[in-house]
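#lab-general

N.A. 3:47 PM
ok so I finally got the sequence cleaned up, no stray characters, all 304 residues accounted for. can someone with queue access submit it? mine expired

B.Y. 3:52 PM
send it over

N.A. 3:53 PM
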Amino acid sequence: MRHDHIISAKQLSRADIEEVLDRAADIAADPSAYADRHAETLLGLLFFEPSTRTKMSFTAAIKRLGGDVVDMGPVEYSSVKKGESLADTARVVEGYADALVLRHPSEGSAKMASEFVDVPLLNAGDGAGQHPTQTLLDLYTIRENAGLDDLNIGIMGDLKYGRTVHSLAHALTNFDAHQHFISPESLRLPRSVRYDLHEEGATIREHTDLDDVLDSLDVLYVTRIQEERFADQSEYRKVAGEYQIDAETLESAREDLTVMHPLPRVDEIDHDIDDTDHAKYFDQAHNGVPVRMALLDLVLGGDQ
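B.Y. 4:20 PM
back already:
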């Protein structure tokens, strides 16, 4: 992976994924062994959309590797407000950093920006497109709790606009995973994603009712309805709050069901699930640090 841009989960092979996850497991077991791997390395943060977990975990990851960040800061205080293009912003910040992390509201923005820079660029979310580093921490969490082969996973909520869903679905085609997609008809997986999954040989089923499949699942991956992606707020209101789970919902689930969520949640998962053995979404968020440490270490050319 050295010096590669990480733009889409589609570019990751099973070997790539396992290399990152194995490195992350090593880091989680002995983080002090990686403390000075990238001393004086600078990571450039270009976040054009709000972020808590992704931005903070990338910051924590590079600092735990001995490096630091240079941060563009809020868009309203940057030269973007003066009309600077994304390409120009990326080319400028490239001169200050050894790698870049980009989040942007436009699908395809990370791919475009990567064509203008020579340092590694990592896509931290491009609109409703892809979020490959989130996918890697999702896979790490799934592997830790349920394994990645002979897996039945349900992915529920906003499948149309949810970039974490699109990335995860593609990555899971590298494993023996049966994917069940649960959503309102209006928020089904985009046709292009369904086509790609079929072309990749994925085993997928689509449902509108969680009860149809809940008792067979090893993992339930819940997502919020992406209000900010709707052009028409009346359409959002039609589906808001339609797919929610609570402790009663899970009474028919397997005892070892793993419940995940990329966060932030709104009302999709009731707080009464938080203290159950099913809840792994806070562990999932915390896994962002060792996984992003591993990814940065590999992209920046860390010693084997």
